[in-house]
Write the structure tokens for this entry.
Amino acid sequence: MSSGGLELPPGDAGHEGGTSDVPAGTSPGVPPDAPSGGPSGPPGAVSLARPAESGPGPAAGAELDWSAEAWSEVRTRAQRAGRAYIWLNLIEQRLRAVVGAVLRPIYEPVHGEDDWVVAAAGPAGQEWVHRAVAVRDVSRRKGYLLDPADDNVLSFLTLPQLRELMVQHWPCFEPYFDDRREVELALDELEVTRNVVSRNRALSQAVLSQAERASARLLEVLGGGAGSPAAERLPIDAVEDLVGDRYADVVSVHPDRVRLQRQLPAEDLFGGARRLDAIGIGLNLLVQNYSGRRLVRLADAGCRVRLLFLNPASSAVKRRERELGLKKGELSRSVEMNILHVRRVRTRLGDPSNFAIHVFDETPRFTAYLVEGAGGPGSGIAVVQSYLRRARGMEAPVLVLRGGGRGPARDTEPGLFGTYREEFESVWQDSRPVS
């Protein structure tokens, strides 16, 4: 037996060391049913020792298995990389359009349609621009160019190369952008993310968040932003903007109000609002999480407020108390305290005419906070919860909706924001004011 686990072929039957009682076609020390080493198993062929069926180490192939934790980690990595790729794709397309719009009129009349990018790259960019030309030519021959709009050298430049063109010709771009350093810093932050995504490495949440902020800022600087985030109440997410029509105008879903307030505190939800309409049983999200002083400042700054409480003396309150297993009068007293609180706020206002408090007597079906900013009717966000039979409002799932469309194609049909707006107006018409 050799040290590598291979058995040497035997000699003749009567040779020294040979055995005459071994069946023909097998080697000494190997069972008759052991496989031979050759393709057809001729007598005397070299055979390999079988791997051990059991032993102290793991079985063969066990290290290839992925546990549930590993799959979860892979999904998280893929989700983060996908979000980052969408942002990088938007930035690259926008920067390519900007570079083409500024430099093409300067170089194309002299150097022609195909060579103007090569001329703009200059001696410093000869290597990468000629590589882009070669890749474009290969793509032409193999039929990889499916869109004629991409049949140009500019479409084959990467984000760092587009940045290099912009930096080299900054005097040409300076009339359009105020701060060169702001553009370069944003592109520097994106370069870290681009390297991680292109090499399929793990992207941390911190780096992804940094890339999203840098991308949103850069899109706004380059003139491709979607408007002021403050006016829209929430910044438009690139992924949401691309696939948002799959989910109507739902921005996010939270299992309960606690998790909502981690992501969207009351200060961010109500602060700076120009119009606030709320309907529910006790409106605890507003009354208990947004101080009276802030509410006074909000109303004095010009915000129109309409609050619609469930009548604490109605039979609907008693039914709700029985559903939740509360003591008799416990819920009604809580609602009364909330109404008294907002009444005190109203008395402190210079002009209380824009701060209305009503009560309704119908069965409560949902609670909603419809907040609009400076963008006018249809803008802003809404927080909506349905009432569950055995769960308090704090424990019910929460929908966050964006008011208004995010593009011409999405303005044709009303979303959920408009549906809850109509429902609020309907109940408001049938409600009674609180003196």
User: Anything to note?
Assistant: The CA atoms of residues 60 and 411 lie 59 Å apart. The mean pLDDT is 82.
